[in-house]
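Our working data are protein records whose layout never changes between entries. An example says more than a description, so a record of this kind follows.
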Amino acid sequence: PSDVAWFNIGPKPGEEGTAIITGHFGPWKNGASSVFDNLYKIKEGDKIYIKDSNGNLIQFVVQNSRIYSANMSVSDIIQKDGKKQLDLITCNGTWIENKRTYDKRLVITSLIN
């Protein structure tokens, strides 16, 4: 619940294209919070910092926040314009018990500054 994951078949944050980092949302059985529980609070103009493998900080500026159906494909969501973009993705919406997931996805889009 406290870790994020980089979609490693795509670009690394700071490279050309859309880098994707995902993390959990919602409470766990043991009462633990999830890493992206407060992601919905991020707004346009906020800054996101990613530390690369060399220890350098890369700064991104949030462009928008959008909610999509959980049925949407990641390829339908990401931009394909060649910019250096970072998308943070987590669950959102209503919990669907029999599917053990939420019905929506929150996507925070940011561009390198």
About this structure: The mean pLDDT is 91. The two ends are 29 Å apart (CA to CA). The chain has one helix and six strands. Helices lie at 74-77.
